[in-house]
Amino acid sequence: MAGSPAETPLVPPPRRVATPTMLAYGFGAAAYGVKDFCFITFLLLFYNQVVGLPSAEVGFVIMCALLLDAFVDPAIGMLSDRTRSRWGRRHPWMYAAAAPIALGWLLLWNPPAWSHAGLLGWLFCTAVLVRTAVSAFEVPSQALTPELSSGYEERTRIMAYRYLFGWGGGMAMLVLSYAWFLAEGPGRPHGQFDRAGYPAFALGGAVLMVVAILVSALGTHREIRHLPPVRVERQPLRRSLAELFETLRNPAFLMLMGAGLCYFTAQGISFSMSNYLYAHVWRFDSTAFELLGGTLFLGVLLAFVLAPRLARRLGKPGAATLALVLAVLLLTAPYLLRLGGAFPAPGSPWLLPLLFAIFTVNATFAVSSTMLGASMLADVVEHSEVTTGRRSEGVFFAGFFFVQKCSSGLGIFLTGLILSLTGFPDGAAPGTVPTLVVDRFTLLFCCVYLSLAGTAAFFYRRFPFGKAEHAARLAQLGARAD
To answer: Residues near 157 by Cβ (< 8 Å), separated by ≥ 6?
Structure first.
């Protein structure tokens, strides 16, 4: 199907994108950062420990909601690629997503006083609404990355901004959650376990996401005239589906999806377990929770500086592999050392400084690896265009976004299983869980995390091309255009 008449692609120039545009574009990722942080960190906790539903059932329902994304995300990506409007292919979707995201978010965190089965149904429906609305913004928004510039290193810079704000949004919500919305108070020694704080938590998250979406859409609106003028013609659904499956069979894309599926699921387990680990393993108090967000965001800032430099020195595949291996070892080290009696115990003055230093460096390498993975995905667009004659940014980033959302769905599901298998009690207050249960829980977490993240590093290392091959493809596509 190379050179299909249904589309007339044009490779964007390898230009450096202006900083104001980069700031606006990156800021849009804060919406996904807020959603992802809250989904992974609080959703299981809220419906299990606060609402009172069994952890395994909550995890299973959230995973079932994820299954619909297997159809929704590629459909949005394909429709975005084929959208025709005076606002281009991406911006109509970005603007339209704001209101549904806010509505779904408020409903998700304010369930009615229904029966056990009714609450599980409410969770399923509202989770699907939120996920679909977020996809309608994030998939077209991410698809702008390869359209803004074809520069090999510039795409890493673009993704660095996007991940900076994505993590920044999540960390801002973390700080607001522990310091304000879910802060401890009289009769509330652990605010995250108290339902009274969640209505304000939901409203604050909705406002942050809507602001990020509108600022990003408006701030990048002037770029529409610079985007590749892809001419899209109507064609039968059967042919569109055939082109979709042809695109998704790209070997470089499949390699990145394998890495993403494994690592983002491992990350999902880590995030969804974080409140359990912080409260029951390390016995964090309110001050520690408030400091945590700043500690992790410092790691993101360091990744913003480090990732482009690692890519220039080692190439994207090598840099992503190294960063991921270091991140995995750093995250699991404190828990394994604790099990061996070689790490400061809760109450020690050395615990928080050492733990937060490790968390900072871990975040630096973990975010660097995901930045580089997303930058490699942008380069897959031209890799596919050489063989198919189509620019399919929306389809590729829909696949990547689906894998990212697996981190919350599969991660929460596996966390629910780990809690159930280790006999972790529902509604347990910190300090009341037997040490043997905490140890089993910690060890099983480390084993699952190491296995998944190690497999992800293997896939990153096998990514099939680098800067020289990308430059050769750009030259080939430029010659076709002439």
So the answer is: 17, 22, 308
How many other CB atoms are found less than 10 A from the CB of residue 468? 10
Span 56-93, pLDDT tens digits: 899 889 888 877 776 788 888 888 888 888 888 899 99
Q: How far apart are CA 272 and CA 46, in angstroms?
A: 11
pTM over 0.70: yes
Q: Which long-range contacts (CB under 8 A, 24 or more apart) does 475-479 make?
A: 476/386, 477/11, 477/382, 477/385, 477/386, 478/11
Just give the CATH number of 7-481.
1.20.1250.20
Domain boundaries of the chain, sorted by first residue: 7-481
Q: Give the contacts of 201 (CB within 8 A, at least 6 positions apart).
A: 38, 42, 109, 177, 181, 182
Report the alpha-carbon distance of residue 302 to residue 155 in Å, rounded. 18
* Angle in degrees, 0-180, between the axes of helices 29-38 and 116-148, rounded to the nearest 10: 150
Q: CA angle, 243 as apex, 84 and 94 as ends, to 5°?
A: 35
Listing DSSP states for 292-332 in one string gives HHHHHHHHHHHHHHHHHHHHHHH-HHHHHHHHHHHHHHHHH
Would you say how long the chain is, in residues?
482
pLDDT digits (tens, 9 = 90+) for 312-364: 999 999 999 999 999 999 999 999 999 999 999 998 999 999 999 999 999 99
